[in-house]
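Fold description:
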Amino acid sequence: MPIIWGRANSSNVMKLLWFCAETGLDYERRDAGGAFGVTREAGYTAKNPMSLVPTLEEPDGWAVWESNTILRYLASTTPAAAALYPDAPRARAGIERWMDWQLAHLSKPMTTLFFTHVRIPEPERDWSAAEAARRQAAELWALLDRQLEGRAFIEGDTFTLADIVLGIFAHRWHALPIERPELPELRRWYGTLAGRPGFARHVMVPMT
């Protein structure tokens, strides 16, 4: 079975664990990153020169890094994931734009908010930067709120990889002690995700 290298409290590792829960894919997870170290060791950097998590390692030793790339690879090689990442070019492009949107636009303000409220000691917190990030994130979530109008999930009636990559951050958005605009479609979608066992097990956990 494949090995997922990375600590379970990493948002990017959560994507993979939730995917595996949705598809029934067996895996072994090995702690790495943060307090666990490992990522700077020669054996790890040979698999992932960025020294970050996650890294996926196949039984033959082949490895790939970058969480959304790993998701695409796993979805392409796991029969049970066909609906999460369909072959039709336009359907796939629709999903991938949201995966890229997460990386290019949403991750930065959400990371600032998360680190400010969870990982940075209070005397060192930059509240002006956190407020700017909150406003930016609110605008982005409002965009997704509009996308969700008339749709059960981000790309229609079917749960896909787009929901996985954005669902991680949706939980943090709703769980952090911040002011949030009323976004009813986003809240409805988040509630739907909360009813999925893999989301509850791997994502709706204490933020550390």
Q: What stands out?
A: The longest strand covers residues 3-5. The chain has eight helices and four strands. The helical segments are 11-23, 42-45, 67-77, 89-119, 127-147, 161-175, 184-194, 197-202.
